[in-house]
Specification:
heterodimer; A: nine-stranded mixed sheet; B: Mth169, Chain: A; 3 helices; flat
């Protein structure tokens, strides 16, 4: 299931040249039947300076990847429950094994929207999503606060940084029992929280959470849709100029490179 | 041939947005006197051959691990029912 390996064409985001020192970061992007946002996620990886590796749900091996993104969409048409069937894909078993922190370094895994739902169904993240409290599909730019900057996917944000990224879902109401919510709060595992309006009735305004080790993160909004000037949310600099989501992808690449700095500007660009 | 019916409901403490919407729509159509609605799922599992205790045990496991998500749902019933279509058609082979 090869995808077109297009490179960034448009936008002046100061993206890495494609020949940076971090080119070695290989980030797998999983495609299930019904996945929608795999190409956007792969594009975000490339704009951030990494190499996107297409992964097919039926594959039984992860191959040579340093991190994995489970992107958004409606895998298996949301049959049974959102993410419930995808959880049993052969590749999900390999991802769960590699992401287990007790088994080694713990592969960084990011679930976006339907990918978040899949990671909860796979028990890689706590809680679950039910239908939005207002029952409607909501598509809007949403402000989030990044409350934990120690995960592989948020290391380059500043503490409590507000970011604006698109949100688009119908089953986005995060729920968990009281004990789980208390534990998530106490351990600082609410990675992203809705600011201003709660768009779907999520408990504690939770937009995204991490596992205890911080290598697995899931969120309902879409950072991969806010990585390229001209195609993101409106921001102070102009219409559709928002690229707040890009930091999610540069964070994991820098975490993999063992660096706390951004892409190396001296990284051998021609 | 009998079949196994599994019923799954949202947990009592989970607000059921769909049920709530149905409850508020009922009076618009003149159906009055209902104070609440909760919407669940019914699964019908057909079995080739006899429904043994082992088959039922496997069904309960599938109900707990796949047909429901214990974070948000409860399995409220697993039972054997006669297939009404076949019951009406008389015996088979």
């Amino acid at each position: 299931m090869a995808q077109a390996s297009e490179t960034p064409l448009i936008g002046e985001t100061g993206s890495a040249s494609g020949e940076s020192a971090l080119d070695g970061a290989r980030i797998g992007v999983v495609t299930f039947p019904g996945t929608l946002d795999d190409r956007d996620a792969a594009r975000a990886v490339r704009i951030a300076g990494g190499t996107a590796v297409p992964l097919w749900h039926a594959d039984d091996a992860l191959g040579d990847v340093d991190a994995v993104i489970v992107p958004g969409g409606f895998s298996y048409g949301d049959y049974l429950r959102a993410g419930a069937i995808s959880r049993f894909a052969p590749l999900m078993r390999r991802i769960a094994e590699s992401a287990d922190p007790s088994a080694g370094a713990g592969l960084p895994v990011l679930g976006i929207c339907n990918g978040f739902q899949i990671l909860t169904e796979a028990h890689l993240l706590p809680g679950s999503m039910i239908k939005n409290d207002h029952l409607r599909f909501r598509c809007a730019d949403q402000v989030l606060r990044v409350e934990n900057t120690s995960t592989a996917w948020t290391a380059q944000f500043t503490d409590d940084e507000p970011i604006t990224v698109p949100l688009k879902n119908q089953d986005g109401q995060y729920v968990a029992d009281a004990a789980t919510l208390e534990q998530l709060e106490a351990e600082g595992r609410v990675t992203f929280r809705y600011v201003g309006t709660n768009p779907n009735g999520s408990r504690h305004d939770i937009a995204g959470v991490s596992n205890a080790a911080g290598n697995v993160v899931g969120l309902m909004p879409h950072p991969e849709h806010a990585v390229e000037a001209g195609f993101g949310p409106d921001d102070a600099t102009g219409m559709r100029s928002g690229t707040d989501g890009l930091t999610v992808f540069t964070s994991v690449i820098s975490s993999l490179a063992g660096s706390t700095a951004g892409p190396d500007p001296a990284g051998g660009a021609a | 041939m009998p079949r196994i019916v599994v019923e799954v409901m949202p947990k009592p403490e989970i607000l059921d947005p769909q049920g709530k919407a149905i409850a508020s729509a009922l009076p618009h159509l003149g159906f009055r006197g209902f104070s609440a609605v909760r919407q669940g799922k019914r699964f019908e599992l057909s079995v080739d051959g006899e429904i043994t205790d082992a088959v039922l045990a496997q069904t309960r496991k599938a109900a707990a691990e796949m047909l429901s998500n214990p974070v948000i749902e409860d399995v409220v019933d697993v039972r054997v029912e006669d297939d009404p279509a076949e019951a009406g058609a008389g015996d088979e082979g």
